[in-house]
Amino acid sequence: MIRKVLIANRGEIALRVISAAKELGVRTVAVYSEADRNSLHVRFADEAICIGPPRPGDSYLNVPAVISAAEIANVDAIHPGYGLLSENANFAEVCRASNIKFIGPPPEVTRLMGEKEKARQAMKNAGVPILPGSDGIVESAEDALQWAQKVGYPVILKAKAGGGGRGMRIVRSAEELPNLYHSASTEATNAFGNGELYMEKFIERPRHIEFQVLADEHGAVEVLFERECSIQRRHQKLIEEAPSLQITPQIREEISATIKRCLIDIGYHNAGTIEFLMDEDGSIYFIEMNTRIQVEHPVTEAITGVDLVKAQLRIASGERLADILPKSITIRGHAIECRINAEHPIKFTPSAGKITAFNVPGGNGVRVDTNQYAEGVVPPYYDSLIAKLIVHGVDRAEAIAKMERALSQFVVQGIDTSIPLHQEIFANEDFRAGIFDTKFMERFLAERKV
Fold it and tell me: Hey, CA dihedral for 186, 190, 193, 197, is it positive or negative?
């Protein structure tokens, strides 16, 4: 077992990793910026090292500072969490060169899956269905026009090196393509330092479904079912649930088999997520892979009973999946997660500041992952996520009832949060009936009465 791990992250995921490590008897080292000096991950780690000023580029994204902290603390491994450096292949390579275990896939695999057109090709070679699109990057607006004619409008341009909706444009006609190509490329350059784009067929009303995987370093891969992530605003997930209402046992079995084949072929190990779009006919298509733990991993933990973060640590310690996972894993009930963000529920403006009151709900089947507390401060420099509220019920109806109750008992004062928005969504008849897609929030906000 790893003796000592540094968590190269902040917020609730840093605290989540610390908790898993402590249960395994692994010592922990927190790194923090000056803005996070009083954060709970700093308090509960065995050791804590300040790595710089508040801005992420000067602290959490500062690779030399993170590696220096790891060497000072004499750690065996680094857990990157999600976001920040978690999918940075260069960081993983620096860890390897420094004889520090990076808790994630090898840097070569991270790089392969991070270059989305190469990831598409790897999945295609393994038999995973992919959306029709360009063979690699589109070199120019003229090249894009030729591909769009082959694929058929509407199409979507996507940044080769990024995600989160940046460097992405929907194109519905040849006339608008050149301007949208240039604006997407410029945005991708500014966001990721790489303006290259690729093209896919655009599905008008898709569902966003993702499959959770674990892979050990001995060639074994396990797919731990799927999550439904269609409730999004501007490509940012708001609500996730597991399992998906749309995935049949046959689809689940077929997709899982092809995913396993692909990940074995590319030499993947540790945790990861394969993301798909499902069209209105029920066909499912690969879009990308996230080579890290996901924000929404607790819903998979709820329906499987598997602690994914502990599994990450044990895989990185060289253990086999056969010794980590139960012999048989089945879907147990239904789980839903709400991302509680520090933002105005109507204007969607960020809300930083001091929390004057903070009460989290409890009870059977209710879990809250958070790094916040009363009198704590939400700094303005980072992601707006302040808590994740997860519920687990015997079925979706019970999970919804638990979530409504839990949201009503979740008290955050001093800042604005998305809790009222979540309560509105759970009162929506279409959501309750499971009738939604990735455009649900656009329709919901257009019809909203506030």
Answer: negative
Pairing mode of beta strands 169-171, 155-159: antiparallel
| Rounded Cα distance, 238 and 339, in Å | 5
User: Is the CB of residue 278 less than 8 Å from the CB of residue 220?
Assistant: no
Q: Looking at the domain covering 207-447, what would its CATH class be?
A: alpha beta
CA distances from 380 to 155, 238, 415 (A): 36, 20, 12
Q: Which residue has the tokens 């257009």?
A: 446
Domains in the chain: boundaries:
4-103, 132-201, 207-447
C-alpha torsion angle, residues 18, 24, 27, 32 (rounded to 10): -10
Tell me the CB-side half-sphere exposure of residue 312, using CA atoms within 13 A: 31
Catalytic sites, residue numbers = 292
CA dihedral 347, 352, 357, 363 (to 10 degrees): 70
Measured CA to CA, the distance from residue 130 to residue 200 in angstroms comes to 9
Q: Where are the beta strands (DSSP E) in 293-384?
A: 334-341, 353-354, 357-359, 366-370, 377-378
Q: Which CATH class is domain 4-103?
A: alpha beta
The residue written with tokens 């009503």 in the block is 408
Structural domain 132-201, CATH architecture: 2-Layer Sandwich (3.30)
pLDDT along the chain (450 residues), means of 10: 96 98 98 97 98 96 98 98 96 97 97 85 88 88 94 91 80 95 94 89 93 97 98 94 96 94 94 95 91 97 98 98 96 98 96 97 97 96 96 98 98 98 98 96 88
Q: 154: which 2 tokens?
A: 């509407």
